[in-house]
Please model this.
Amino acid sequence: MIAIMFSYIFDLLDPGKSRIRSIEAGSFLFHRNDLVRHLYLVLEGEIQLIRHQDSGSAMVLQNAKRGDIVADASVFSEKYHCDALTLTHSVIQVVEKEKFREYLLQHPESTIQWAARLAKQVQDARLRSEILSLKRVSEKLDAWLDWHRTLPPKGEWRQLALQIAVSPEALYREIAKRRGSTARSQ
Model:
């Protein structure tokens, strides 16, 4: 519901202040330390926010899909704190950050909904933080499954490994171990 409401806000803005853009898979929407000038609503595709660590590892901060706003907390930042990479061909609606902020100032009910959206993301981030604090792959996977209920399709397991900060190979071994114990118990 909130995603629909913000799509509506994008539509309400003067068409000269909003535009549609198509981006090929594997392209960057922005990089860490780029100035935040726009807000992006995903109309089609998937865009991932990734923070690269000095150690070379990467952490997924957001998987933005249809109806999601990419790096929405950045509306209050000067610079991006991560990279945004398109995982699939994506179509986005782009609006200037300052125009969006002006709209929120003029529409208090939308500001309350925006705050609710950001509060939900804080809750999700806290859960992700809890998952990342766990030591064993099995614990991380259990916590992730408590949140999502079921494994994603096999082709998305590598992304799941990034989300829970384990190597893809360690995740594959844990899933295989669980499937093996399920088959033996039947």
